[in-house]
Amino acid sequence: xxxxxxxxxxxxxxxxxxxxxxxxxxxxxxxxxxxxxxxxxxxxxxxxxxxxxxxxxxxxxxxxxxxxxxxxxxxxxxxxxxxxxxxxxxxxxxxxxxxxxxxxxxxxxxxxxxxxxxxxxxxxxxxxxxxxxxxxxxxxxxxxxxxxxxxxxxxxxxxxxxxxxxxxxxxxxxxxxxxxxxxxxxxxxxxxxxxxxxxxxxxxxxxxxxxxxxxxxxxxxxxxxxxxxxxxxxxxxxxxxxxxxxxxxxxxxxxxxxxxxxxxxxxxxxxxxxxxxxxxxxxxxxxxxxxxxxxxxxxxxxxxxxxxxxxxxxxxxxxxxxxxxxxxxxxxxxxxxxxxxxxxxxxxxxxxxxxxxxxxxxxxxxxxxxxxxxxxxxxxxxxxxxxxxxxxxxxxxxxxxxxxxxxxxxxxxxxxxxxxxxxxxxxxxxxxxxxxxxxxxxxxxxxxxxxxxxxxxxxxxxxxxxxxxxxxxxxxxxxxxxxxxxxxxxxxxxxxxxxxxxxxxxxxxxxxxxxxxxxxxxxxxxxxxxxxxxxxxxxxxxxxxxxxxxxxxxxxxxxxxxx
Length: 563
Ligand code: FES
Hints:
The protein is α/β, with parallel strands linked by helices. It has 19 helices and 14 strands. It has helices spanning 12-26, 54-67, 90-106, 121-132, 158-169, 174-183, 196-207, 222-241, 245-248, 251-264, 269-280, 287-295, 311-316, 319-327, 343-347, 410-416, 453-456, 517-525, 538-546, and strands at 37-42, 71-76, 111-116, 136-140, 147-149, 152-154, 374-378, 381-387, 399-407, 429-432, 464-467, 479-484, 501-505, 510-513. It has an 8-stranded mixed sheet. Strands 2-1-3-4 form a 4-stranded parallel sheet, with helices on both faces. The model has no long low-confidence stretch (mean pLDDT 95). Bound molecules: FE2/S2 (inorganic) cluster.
């Protein structure tokens, strides 16, 4: 145990001697020295509610490690949860990734088990593990069970948004809203629709970084404890075989992950996260690749927000192994996984129960013939933007031309969006500027710009909205996101003025600002970068100096291998 690495004192004999004393301090002796040491990256937190139930899972992992002949040692890393982090968790994803990377690298461990769950945690841990590149395996805390109100299934947090909008429109009263609120997050676990947490878990499984079946098993089922124990056993094999993240997260594995996102109607945030993880390994994953694979990947998992069911239902239908089995003709099935076997070997015996074919559709009769995310480009987004066409409520906005109503910041939007004098109609295009990675900073999930109250009361439920920020994977509507480059670094989105005509054609993949080139050049000449005086020191300052744009995954330029 702990023979080769540890603190250096410039005298190796003394270093060994003092290490031995502290190994004894941990309760180990010479009989343990040859056993693999497995770090368990413990992200338990009472503030990050999605990780507050991890203790029994960690215990089960430890049992697995010990059963397989290893020594499990927990260590803490940062844990950030979506709802309680100011101003937004995305600002801290890279900090979690740095913490994870450096602790895996610095500590005397032979392999590591990552415990993800909440939206930013799973991608951040995969980023860190990719850079550290010691044998690693992921497990999540699992999704919550379905909520229910008045016989209707509720899901966090698609229904948080849906019912809040209805409340503002006056169709749901305060008592009903309060009763619904009590059931939105009914059990331990992460959000249970196909939001970012469920999507990245599905990707981790399809890339081979998690054991088969781990993504969809609810946080509350015994199966998750069994999977935790098996995860503990599996890491020992990865250490013995020296199988590292770079052997598993290959270029082909990222293709599998992208196809998974498309097939399950996954979160738009997964585009940013997968690009960031790939770049940690020097793999070039572009928006164009997402678009290419989206065109040829049928949308087969009938899961909210684009479908009808939730993760608990997907689990009963066979979980991700069943989805991957159905998708397998389109996947690179010879890729290595954390089982020590290929994806093909993992799913060879999987049978899809016909009883659940309304949840996992066939490739021949999918929900939609292509994927859940579309990349769009044009003079308004030269480096690209994304939209979820299947989450669009009013399909007329898939091909639309309208006048811009511009909000120059999040604060401006909050102050004016419900102003009764705001000149806005259902056909206007709501634009939010300066909410990107640098501008906000941290690219918050504010892209589902609220529909002005006065329009909600007239029955309007969807409008074309456009911004350089993100939206929650649980959100919905005609929402163009991740416009790059962002306004704060001089992107054309920052040049839009009230009344400008914006044209979108989702099928063609185009997004244009119908303003002459001369006029745009003039506006650019008069544009000056915002002067930021909010964060002049510390991590937030560092973030703003080094964060990359959305099309490059919003990692730090010094962390990505191909910045
Ligand atoms: Fe953690 Fe939704 S709040 S996944």
